[in-house]
Amino acid sequence: MIRATLVTVAACGLLGLGAAAAPAAVAATPGGSTWNADAKAFRAQIGSLYDFVCPAGGSVGVLWGDGTYTDDSSVCTAGVHAGTISVAAGGTVTIQMVAGLSSYTSAARNGITSKPYGPWGGAFQIVSGRQGGGTSGGNVGGSGWSANAVPFRARTGERFVYTCPGGGTVGNVYGSGLYTDDSSVCTAAIHAGLISLAAGGTVTIEMRAGASSYTSSARNGITSRGYGGWPGAFAFPAAAGGTTTAAATPTTATGTVAAAVAASWSSDTRSYRSRVGSTYRFTCPAGGRTSTIWGSGTYTDDSSVCTAGVHAGLISLARGGSVTVQIRAGLSSYVRSTRNGVTSKSYGPWPGAYVFIR
Hints:
This protein has helices at 75-81, 185-191, 305-311, and strands spanning 8-9, 29-32, 49-54, 65-66, 68-70, 91-99, 108-109, 112-113, 122-131, 139-143, 159-164, 175-176, 178-180, 201-211, 218-219, 222-223, 230-235, 279-284, 295-296, 298-300, 321-329, 338-339, 342-343, 352-356. It is mainly beta and 358 residues long. It has three domains: 8-18 and 257-356, LCCL-like domain (Ferric Hydroxamate Uptake Protein, Chain A, domain 1); 33-131, LCCL-like domain (Ferric Hydroxamate Uptake Protein, Chain A, domain 1, Beta Complex); 139-242, Ferric Hydroxamate Uptake Protein, Chain A, domain 1. It has a six-stranded mixed β-sheet, with helices on one face.
């Protein structure tokens, strides 16, 4: 579908990288610090991130929705429901504000049963969480050399931290760079060159969609196995120099990250719609020309990525630059806003979307 509309670009403010409103790619703003804190006060800040601190030994509150929660829901309780923190340990939950939905579903997860609801004007999603006293950089995944990532198969794009005790026992590993989710995470980390069997360590994985095949290789004293189709997988963000994104090129089945390539100012992400959770880096040339965008914080996947990068305050038309997007499921509506000299358009339901990440 081609939608021909005009993006308004003001003459001022294009060279400044600061944004008056916090886009999804900037550091989160403090949101609240109790178990009854909700996100209603931030309803208008679509796409912005907020950190909520949840004390240990909390008391669960009321929750509406599943994955996308009404903004009057207890944020800390949503963090437990999403599996990012626990009531006992507490922790920190990062949310992103999104447009309200026409309906919210009920689900029982991690000991919390949320409630269904009809139309509600504001909502949020859990971006990440950290258990109280835990390790930053991802959700708590597991501990021990037998731990795998099967429990997180449905959470494509999310990161989980695993603790591997020193003096471990190697387990089975399938794949190379991209590993089947039933592989031993700690053993795969040795294979990837991140830790050693003797010293152990802490590693972060990122959940990926399953591949049609996985390759065998011998690395760092570990020989992985090849395999055919398997529905869930993970990779290590710290591998390949800490880069997990490719410029308009997805990670291959072997986990190889493509080199960055230039993108035009009309480039969008429609071709990656089915790869929810995947991340891509676009390089926008200097002296760009804006194209149409729909949304604010969360953009339709047919929106110009480079223009959205200006809207989000990450790059400028004059200087260009690189931006990293994460593919998201489409929303029931997208809101209009004017930021950094660019005015985006509003729209109704659209099946694919993206946000900017660090």
